[in-house]
Structures are given as structure tokens and as C-alpha cells.
Amino acid sequence: MTTHRGRAPEDEALFAEPMRPRLRAAADEAIWLLGRKYSLDSAVAFVGGHHQLATRQRLFLKRAVCSEEQRRARAERRRDALSGTVVRVDGFNLLITLEVALSGGLVFTGYDGALRDLAGLRGSYHLVDATDRAIDLALDALEALSPQRVELYLDEPVSNSGRLRARIEERAAGRPFETMAALDPNPDARLDGAEDVVSADALVLDRCRSWLPIASAVVRTLDAFHLALWGA
Fold first, then answer.
1. Kind of pairing, strands 86-90 and 149-155?
2. What is the pLDDT of residue 154?
3. How many alpha carbons fall within 13 Å on the CB side of residue 98?
4. Which pLDDT score is estimated for 122?
5. Which domain holds residue 187?
6. 3-class state of residue 219 by DSSP
7. 221: exposed, middle or buried (C-beta count within 10 Å: 0-12, 13-18, 19+)?
């Protein structure tokens, strides 16, 4: 088992308080460019070069910003209570963010209000010391919504997805809701057009009918390395 999913050695300096005005200026400029139909890659490359941002800072921008139009649309679909009785969870997306937060890694609130991290999946996943607690905290937050059923979708091609599914099922036993943890070749497609989705994936947020900020709710209870350029 990998022992942690913590911060990169340079993150403390790259995202420290003195750096935040520069990051906010770069982010605001990228948002302005996105509103004028620049691609995300082009906008981040332009402002990243202008502000001499490091690779990790540019990755943060790429995951944190969206156009004002996208922000408004995602805000309209955000919910703090269930619309129905079933919650549909982008499993890796939620659990990796919580693992990062629990391991002292950087998590951040994007312009759209969704909580994200800088970790990369890239087809490979390993359980870490924080995995069990991340699962428990996620299940606690989901239970607070009083659902009848929780469906967690894990990317089937990702290594160790079966092990994670088994761990989720084990720790969900005895909860007052039915739990289904499924391996799926394309969880994003499964969540397309769905209600009561838990994810911070930009494409999912643009295509679902409603989403729930579960990661944000959990991280508010932790002493996490949390960057919020636009507030909590």
C-alpha cells in the first residue's frame, strides 16, 4: 500500500499566501480569455507565460478556471439537498480528492465552486493510508443527505479499481441506504444527464442535471491545505 497522497515538495512555496495575488490575477485573466472563446489550453499558456508560472501552477489554473457562462450554469445546477432518492458518485473523483486532503496535499475551490486537487490518475490507482478514512468520510457525508440508494461508479480500466470497490462495499455495510459500487468502462457517460451527481469533473458538471458538493462539505471539517482564491 502506498503510504500517502500528499503535496509535491514545491507546493508549499508555489501556493503560499504571497503567491496568491499572482495566481488570482492569472486566473482572472484566463477567465476573461475563456469568455472570449479562447481554448482552455491557449488561455492557460498565455497567462502562465505572462505571469511566469511554474508547471504545477499552470495545472492548477487549468483545473480551477472556467468561463463565466460555465460558472453560472454550474451554480444553477448545484444543490445542497437531494432532488430525488438516489445519489450517483464519480468514485475516483471524490475519493482521490479526499485522500489528497487527508494526506496534506493541496486541494482548491475552483471558480465554479467545486473542490479539486492536482493528483493525476493516468490509468493507475493504489490504495493509500488515507483510503479507508476517505471512504468513511464520504459515506458519512452522503448519509447526511438521507438517500435511499448510493451508486458509486469506478473506472473499470483503472488498476486496482476492483480492490477499491471491495473496500467501499466492506465499509458501506450497515449504512441506512443501499450501496452499489460498480466498475464501469465510462462513468462520465453514466452520469451524463443525471440528477444528484457527486463529481468535480468539468465535463460531468456541464452535462448533469444537478450536482452535490460533497467533497467541499467534507474538507470544511478538516485541517486541509486548501486554496480558495474565490472564497470557500
1. parallel
2. 97
3. 30
4. 75
5. 1-232
6. helix
7. exposed
How would you list the strands of the sheet with 178-184, edge to edge?
178-184, 149-155, 86-90, 197-198
Helices (DSSP H) in the chain: which residue ranges? 11-14, 20-34, 40-50, 55-64, 68-77, 91-102, 131-143, 161-172, 187-191, 202-207, 214-219
Give the C-alpha separation, 142 to 89, whole Å. 10
pLDDT one-digit tens code per residue, 126-177? 999 999 999 999 999 999 999 999 999 999 999 999 999 999 999 999 999 9
| For range 204-230, the mean pLDDT | 97
For the ranges 35-39, 120-124, 215-219, the lowest mean pLDDT is seen at: 120-124
The b/e string for 43-60 (b: 16+ C-beta within 10 A; e otherwise) is bbbebbeebebeeebbeb
Strand 115-117 to strand 106-109: parallel, antiparallel, or no bridges (unpaired)?
Answer: antiparallel
What average pLDDT does the segment 85-93 reach? 98
Distance of CA 36 to the CA centre of its chain: 26
Closest of 9, 199, 1 to residue 104, by C-alpha? 9
pLDDT value for 127: 94
Work out how many domains the chain is built from and give that number.
Answer: 1
pLDDT of residue 5: 81
Given this model, what pLDDT does residue 124 score?
A: 87
* Rounded-to-10 torsion of CA 91, 94, 98, 99: 40
Q: Are 211 and 112 within 8 A, CB to CB?
A: no
Q: How far is 214 from 198, CA to CA, in rounded Å?
A: 7
